[in-house]
Amino acid sequence: MNKTTNFDLLIVYSEELANSASMKSEEINAPFPKDGNKQNYNLVYAYFLNTCRRNNLKAAFTTSADIIGPGKCRSYWLYEKNNWIKVQNEGFSKLIFAKFSPSDKNRKEKRSLLFYSKKIKPFNNQNLFSLCFDKQETYEKLKTFSIPTAAINGLTKQSILIAKKLLNEQIEKQKNNCDFSDEIVMKDRFGAGGLNVYKFGNNQIKEMITLMKKHKNISFVIQPFVKFDKGFKFQNSSNPTDIRLIFLGQKMIQTYIRIAKKGEFRCNEHAGGMLRYLSSKDISSEIKNISKKIVSKLNNKSSLYALDFIISNNGNIYLLEANTGPGLDWNLSVKENEMESKKLMRIIIKEMKKRVVSSKNNFRRARIVIPVVDVPLIDGFEDSQNVLIMNQTI
Fold this sequence. Notes:
four-stranded mixed beta sheet, globular, disordered C terminus, 19 strands, five-stranded antiparallel beta sheet
């Protein structure tokens, strides 16, 4: 049996989106299918691994399908000399950069197995991940800043009516409820990327039930639709726009906006939105002040996360979403986006380097050398074969 290779870092991606290195077909020669809409991710993670190498971090790319134990995978990808290489060998790391969510039973089990040991550390704090992963929990924690949100618990008309009643009660308590239209946004409670987000008229309950039955494995929440097409203008655009602030711990490290395509209310790039980077000074002091309050409430010192805001047509600011998995990819046709994405990756890798070095130093300080010769120590005498090293940097 081949010996397990130890890494400083394992990137673990969703098996639904990336190829396992255990696939033996010669046609599969990169982590992401070259005929799919994620093919540019091969460039993204090639850059990520190269940057790790330049920072003396030993890193590999694997998938959730390869997880076989805490911090352990059955195969992995390396990127060397401008080529992706499949390695049919077990890999292990105590530090995990997880890029998959426990959105179904299989992935929940895989994630639980990956982090089963307390020695295995996710790059992002698990409590913060869980909070941001669940839109209902995000609302409960940050309701002062958020759009009213209610979970639909069931696939019946009654379950929708109960959720709508709860939502209406929340709206009535809202100071600026004139910001909300009669339309309802229904979205995947555990989703991301603008996927499975829909808008309905106030009385379209039958249509909502039909959609829910079509997606029985998805849990939904509902929110009032905020009118925000005129809330934030970029170069005289009248399309809905959201503002994303990315934080590492309590420090804001990147800012950009996403502008929805004409006739669309979702701003995500996957929904046709256009991304434009802004400098921190282009972000209003009101949004910065609200983000500081949220950051203080989250009280996290080292995780990577994003806060998405929208501004209503009346000028009121709402937290739209918080997530711990902001995308690292870029639009191949926009050079600025590539530069900024690479900058973000370098910041992330710098933080990883700091943690790896700290972990190794802690291990050295805690190292114990067991006496080789079983002879009692005598005051004033030091036997070179009988030395206890503890709490000392090697």
